[in-house]
From TrEMBL:
The keyword Transferase is annotated on this UniProt entry: yes
Protein name: Glycosyltransferase family 14 protein
Record localization: Membrane
InterPro entries assigned to the protein according to its UniProt record, in alphabetical order: GLCAT14A/B/C, Glyco_trans_14
Entry annotated with the keyword DNA damage: no
Membrane topology of this protein: Single-pass type II membrane protein
This protein's UniProt keywords: Glycoprotein, Glycosyltransferase, Membrane, Transferase, Transmembrane, Transmembrane helix
Domain of life according to the entry: Eukaryota
Length: 371
């Protein structure tokens, strides 16, 4: 526990004085990654000559120490000539009072039939707003067909202080594990987040399923010990998962120091993100980040992202290779569904490749891991 106490001290010092230097502590999401998936990115994105190769494979988690390996039980050997399965994501999308429509929009922008989604409107939202969200999801023929959107009907109390946000995240993770569906990565977002690239070909770094298993089951009791400690923090989400990652032997060498968001902060003290507008569009795209925040509800910049980056029509999911219907006259191409394993990477895939390459560079990877 000496190392754990030392990390707590460092985390507290970091939170007060170095928010701008260690961007991977970010409210309200917690983003980390597993080393092996980045190796897969590099080996599958380009050949030694720079030629484009196969899409991303589903990840196998290997520890940095080499003492153990986690392999998902359902992964089976494939012939060399076979195309790899694309990774699958499990999302928690949370909203506060008045965020019902924004949550629906973020859900549609992120939707893919092979992913899993848990959506939650906190207890401060009205019963009418929560019922409106539930009805929208219940009545969607797309969501009914794939049964991959779960609504937390008994709303949790979520505040911006204390451990309630961590508890809500762990609740959603437990639901996703209990459902038993196949997924590889867990991503925690709010309704004020928005994607800058499509789901096809974009393996966004997140908390791996083996790590989520570890946080829920806590076979060496570390996750529960850290959770009790962080229950005394004002901003538990800014340190809980990071502390568990950096003190678990099988995970501490597997982190990548990035929050994967484009954010503009107040200066000083860089604690509150500015709302993004049309004036930020070029900088968002040039950041190569897969997400951006913070957006006002229905800001015009969201329409520009839909049009230029996602090719998404109003009230429609972001189209991917699984959507084979017509685009003519504003019709929804996802109204006709093809093979959900077919992916059609958009321009964001190349931006993501550049970001991953930078994160794995000599100066950015090992020197910025857990200390």
């Amino acid at each position: 526990m000496k190392k754990l106490r030392s990390y707590y001290s460092n985390a507290r010092h970091h939170h007060n004085h170095h928010h701008s230097e260690r961007r991977w502590i970010l409210f309200p999401i917690v983003i980390a990654s597993i080393f092996a998936v980045f190796l897969l990115f590099l080996t599958t994105l380009t050949s030694p000559t720079g030629a484009r190769l196969l899409p991303f494979t589903r990840p196998v988690l290997l520890t940095g120490s080499g003492s153990s390996a986690f392999v998902e039980s359902k992964i089976k050997p494939r012939p060399v000539s076979s195309l790899p399965d694309p990774p699958r994501f499990a999302y928690l999308i949370s909203g506060s009072a008045g965020d019902g429509k924004s949550l629906r929009r973020t859900l549609l922008a992120l939707y893919h039939p092979n992913n899993r989604y848990v959506v939650h409107l906190e207890r401060a939202s009205s019963p009418e707003e929560r019922e409106d969200l539930h009805g929208y999801i219940r009545n969607s023929s797309l969501f009914r067909r794939f049964q991959n959107v779960h609504v937390i009907e008994k709303a949790n109390l979520v505040t911006y202080r204390g451990p309630t946000m961590v508890a809500n995240t762990l609740h959603a993770a437990a639901i996703l594990l209990r459902e038993g569906a196949e997924w590889d990565w867990f991503i925690n977002l709010s309704s004020s987040d928005y994607p800058l690239m499509t789901q096809d070909g974009s393996a966004w770094m997140a908390l791996s399923r083996p790590f989520i298993d570890y946080c829920i089951w806590g076979w060496d009791n570390l996750p529960r010990t850290v959770l009790m400690y962080y229950s005394n923090f004002l901003s538990s989400p800014e340190g809980y998962f990071h502390t568990v990652l950096c003190n678990a032997e099988e995970f501490r060498n597997t982190t990548v120091n990035s929050d994967l968001h484009f954010i503009t902060w107040d200066n000083p003290p860089k604690q509150h993100p500015h709302h993004l507008t049309l004036a930020d569009m070029d900088r968002m795209v040039n950041s190569n980040a897969p997400f951006a925040r913070k957006f006002r509800r229905e800001d015009p910049v969201l329409d520009k992202i839909d049009e230029e980056l996602l090719n998404r029509g109003f009230g429609m999911p972001t189209p991917g290779g699984w959507c084979i219907g017509s685009h003519e006259n504003g019709t929804d191409p996802c109204a006709v569904i093809g093979d959900t394993d077919v992916i059609r990477p958009g321009p964001g895939a190349r931006r993501l490749e550049s970001l991953v390459t930078s994160l794995l560079s000599t100066e950015n990877f090992r020197p910025k891991q857990c200390k």
